[in-house]
Amino acid sequence: MQYIPAVVLLAVGLVILVLALRKAARAARRFAVTRGHVNAEVGASTGMLKARKAALRIAVRDHFRRAEIDKSTEA
Question: For the whole prediction, is pTM greater than 0.85?
Answer without folding.
Answer: no
